[in-house]
Model the fold of this input.
Amino acid sequence: MIPAAFDYLRAESLEHATALKAEQGEDAKFLAGGHSLIPLMKFRLAAPTALIDLSGLGELRTLEQTDGTLRLGAGLRYRDLELSSVVREQLPLLAAAVASVGDRQVRARGTIGGAVVHGDPAADVPAVLVALDATLLLRGPDGEREVAAQDFFVDFWETAAGPDDILLEIRVPALPGRGWGFQKFRQRSQDWATVGVAVQERADGARAVALVNMAAVPFRARAVEEALAAGDGVDAAAARAAEGGAPPSDLRADAAYRSHLAQVLTAKALRDAGAGR
Amino acid sequence: MRHDVELRVNGVRTTHTVESRQLLVHYLRETLGLTGTHVGCDTSNCGACTVLLDGVAVKSCTVFTAAADGGEVVTVEGLAVDGEMSPVQEGFRQCHGLQCGYCTPGMVVSATGLLLDNPQPTPEEVREGLEGNLCRCTGYQMIVESVLWAAEHGGPGEAARRVTGADAEVGTR
Done:
């Protein structure tokens, strides 16, 4: 399968990328790892007139730690994060989720920023970033702005990033030594999650719970968090994992089965995160 | 739009003019005639098109040639040295790691990439490491044995080692 014709343009700097986008107009798209966009272009579900490749920009591939915050360049590939001892030590939840995405070859190309901007509710990283209370740094025509991960995901494949915005950085509070759990169910090892769940214990001991593929956006399971805060046990809290969700029905699973999976996986992930001890 | 690209493929410098939308797998197969790299699913699921790009296994059906400009590619044709099969290739021969052979080039290159990262994998790590390569014949058992054989007999091999750039950990400032 061959995509519709387009012009490939390699950005030499962020300023150059922005200038190219202004020049090429609304049907141009930014390209990162391409592992969501290129298949869509092959299926002709996307037919951008130009691709502005950001993958050569070193400033999008930095990983810094300042004042208890990890700052992950949006162009870091899954493989970079998997190989990073800093990520494994400071954000073990993210390290575990990233290592479970796709397969080795996909992780060698796909980027964390690309996964976020693509906004697929079946992707693991967006839900993990919601559970981690991450903040996203965007650069648009009017300058830079920050958006909380919780507010970034708007609808299926739709985010708060405008067509001219470039995601620069993902800022995550480091949580070494805190409990975490990541569970996902899939029919084959490289599949997208039928349902997944990320649990992160915060510095104050509260646990954040976010689910993959239980709504059109990463689904924050507030009912579970509130039940835990009210002193409910793991099973009682996990039983509320699908409350307020809107899981899709497709060939892999119907909504009722997804709701069931959400409860089972949430109980497992909560126990992995040390809840109920 | 057309681009002048320069790549090193199996140690040989190649320069061509390519269209923006040309995929790396098509450049290898149709422009260079290296048909060992196969097109299977064409959607980055099956791994038949796996090559090493700058020392890392990638799916060449999902990389544009223009984006690989300046890169170093190793295909299955580039693994043997002076006509002698690489340890992974020899492992597939010794352990009968193939039947129809369609997935084999991708499987061999992917296993080579795995051994570059992890020279002594456990059987479980081989299975996980090859999850991006589908085989419809073997049931995988003999493939896992082939890769474990290779790990004991020289690992990824000289041709693959030669192209491994500094794929070090991402620096922390």
